[in-house]
């Protein structure tokens, strides 16, 4: 058959047909990208009254001949004030910091694709929770130094949720009141520490590998609201062997030679082994696990020093307690494991969970040791490598205005923020103190009258939206001097190969976390990203209290009363995070908007504790010994010395010294004193005793461990005092003091 030749006109018509087909395909693809998110989520039961929002995501690229990620790790001090400030977490009046048990650290991990382009930052911080103000300021300073390299979509800040860290770094009024005022001194200290940890990680980046492992942790947790958990469908509960999430996920980071770089572990347990009678700043059980792991890897270094970084991050810990002996009436000893967590004599204030140790220090060590041991085991046996591109997606969303599809014909909405009566009851880990009970389903005329007189009455709209929650504080309708709760909330996902880190803006309960992981995992799978490991990283970016399931919400225990956006909060998060997962899976994040930017308030209620001049007693000077040491101690005993002190909060401004104390051993061969412990060591405790008219004492304890070598020792005190001469501005000056020498002998 002879070849047929085409005329110029035919050639032009064929070319035109091909071009029209290509344009049609492109337009259809664009239509699918821009409308697919809404349609898909409508089919899966969720919608919103807002426009879909997300920030740009780095373009993913095929990973051929994968040769490892660029990895950087960094750690920096973010302790802040250790005196004249409320401890954040329990909300207990009078629980002020009066010293330090361990330092608080920001631990940063940077992972970048082999060419260093697409990257992500995960930061675990030894604080109660990340405040929106803290995150916004950290992002601002990163932008000033690095431009667009580290952004809101690829940086996650996560709090470990220790309840023994300083407050005062919030901007929303409820948290400012709980902190007894905003404290710029502590805010600046925290921001500086977080940014510095990221800078260290950025400087230390090298080629390496990431391995992942999972395993169950036993003996470290109980569910503190089991009656709420039982509200979930029996068929759902039957799928799980426990009413807590026991699984720990560990990321092991090594360089290309196999040398250790760092670890991130996620595990669900409240860091409340240190109870609300504690006054020493510390990182609680999760921090103790980090302490043990870093001490093992950084041999020869003092705590807080050395290249290896180990972060034990929070997860869906909302209803999970480390106090494994469970709730008992402290006046009678009988169990108070009942729906209202109340005792026959004394009511809910007597119902407190303890354990597993003899005191809170012992319990912290036991729980921390269990967590550390499992992480060590998983770290040693990790063999599954994480490979693949990095991507990230972020949205700012208005959580007070989300429509949730209950079925094909009915919808419900999230609410303006409000707290229920059971919020004031506290939990078995720390009771509220005003005789409120968990599980409260009715309003109290007495408290309603007080609230109405002071704060106004909640509207019928907010009451109806939050049912069956009886509203104690209608925070979403309170805006003086600033809004009491956030409306604009961060939602964020970062993926590293087959690992997805979801940044949860609050405390998800056990079942909330399980449903959430399944929903996000299913969304990834439906768009081709199969077998994703979804990590629920808790207390990230902004704090919004708790997130229960709809069924748990009906019981109105503490966690449900603290679910501030109403009974459909979890469903709203399903919608937003599934949209982010889809955007990442379809490489369409860049097409989504970033959403309404949250506020950064300039005028805040400041802490009212005055900065007064420090004074030494007549005839004394700062650092003079008031109670000397004994000349000899055995291992297992406590060496204690008391000095003329000065307010430790001065050291959060003048950072000449980076520790309040050192324990030093004399080395005869070199004829020098070598530091063996600092105030980040678990074996040391620094107590500050505030007196009158600027006078104070400082007591330093060394709990001598069995591993202590016999020999000659001394204890040094390093502090700062505030001085102000007539008509001159105050200055903060440093001082040092040394105890007498003492001997340590073995038993």
From TrEMBL:
Record keywords: Hydrolase, Lipid metabolism, Membrane, Metal-binding, Sphingolipid metabolism, Transmembrane, Transmembrane helix, Zinc
Active-site residues, as the UniProt record annotates them: 321 (nucleophile)
Regions crossing the membrane: 12-33
Cofactor remark from the record: Binds 1 zinc ion per subunit.
Binding site for Zn(2+): 161, 270, 507, 546
Domain Neutral/alkaline non-lysosomal ceramidase C-terminal: 577-744
EC class name: hydrolase
Neutral/alkaline non-lysosomal ceramidase N-terminal domain residues: 69-573
Gene Ontology biological-process entries: ceramide biosynthetic process; ceramide catabolic process; long-chain fatty acid biosynthetic process; sphingosine biosynthetic process
Biased composition (Low complexity): 47-62
Region (Disordered): 43-62
Catalytic activity line of the entry: an N-acylsphing-4-enine + H2O = sphing-4-enine + a fatty acid
Catalytic activity, EC: 3.5.1.23
Entry keyword annotation includes DNA-binding: no
UniProt cofactor(s): Zn(2+)
GO MF term list: metal ion binding; N-acylsphingosine amidohydrolase activity
Gene3D superfamilies listed in its UniProt record: Neutral/alkaline non-lysosomal ceramidase, C-terminal domain (2.60.40.2300)
One annotated Gene Ontology cellular component of this protein: cytoplasm
Entry's family note: Belongs to the neutral ceramidase family.
Name this polypeptide is given: Neutral ceramidase
Gene this chain is encoded by: ASAH2
